[in-house]
Structures are given as C-alpha cells and as structure tokens.
Specification:
There is one protein chain. By secondary structure, the protein is mainly beta. It has one domain: Roll (Structural Genomics Hypothetical 15.5 Kd Protein In mrcA-pckA Intergenic Region, Chain A), CATH 3.10.290. The protein has two helices and ten strands. The strands form three sheets. It has a five-stranded mixed beta barrel. Strands 4-1-7 form a three-stranded mixed sheet. The protein is elongated and about 60 Å long. The termini are far apart.
Length: 126
C-alpha cells in the first residue's frame, strides 16, 4: 500500500523499526496522468469519509470558458501545446492543471485537476 507516512528507512539506508502499522488515513495513490485520447471511463476512488474522487484517464473534450463573452463551450482538444509541470508531458499529450491546450475554440489553460476532479475545465488564453 502506498502511504504518505514517514519512511521506514534511515538516511544511512538501514531500517527503522516501525512502532505501528500503516493507517488508512495515510493512504496515498499513484498519480493519474490524464492523456489525450478516446474517452475512457473515469476511475472512481474511495477517499476519507464518504467522499469519492473521479479520475479522468483519457479525454477528447474540455469545458472551455471565454471571459470575453462570458460563455462556456464544450470544445474538442486538438493537442497539448505546453505543460509547465513537466516538459515531457507535452510530448505525451498529458493534461494536468496549468497545461496549455489547443482546442477548436482556440488556446486555453486548464484550471481543473483532471486526475482529481473528473473533468477538464479550461479558460481561453489571452
């Protein structure tokens, strides 16, 4: 199980003897790298409490907001033109928050976290 608790290794590489087991509230997960491609079902993960997280695995459309007109439009994503999170994400068409995507409506910046929110929301770039 992936946890966000402290490491079981010392800085020297030796083992720390754990004083307790891993706890469910320390649970982590692998990052979901949302790709540009034919829509696949959203993965739903259980989280603390009664919450759920919908994770987008692949998508072809984004909800784009145009601040000039004040309207939203569902636009098809052509490609990822820039991703400041990681330069290699641009080549792989991986969409994260802050990525600049090329859509049918024009260039837009992703404002949602597709791996956490279950949707790709974006605002038209200036």
């Amino acid at each position: 199980m992936i946890t966000q608790g402290r490491s079981l290794r010392k800085t020297s590489g030796g083992l720390k003897h754990p004083y307790r087991k891993k706890r469910l509230y320390e649970k982590g997960s692998q990052p979901v790298l949302t790709k540009l491609g034919p829509k696949r079902r959203c993965r739903t993960d259980r989280v603390t409490g009664t919450g759920r997280k919908d994770r987008v695995l692949q998508a072809t459309v984004a909800n784009v907001y145009n601040p000039g007109t004040g309207k939203h439009v569902v636009a098809k994503i052509k490609t990822v033109s820039n991703n400041p999170a990681n330069r290699h994400f641009t080549r792989g068409n991986i969409i994260t928050k802050g990525a600049v995507i090329e859509t049918e409506a024009g260039k837009a910046v992703v404002t949602s976290r597709p791996g956490q929110h279950g949707a790709i929301n974006a605002v038209m770039a200036k």
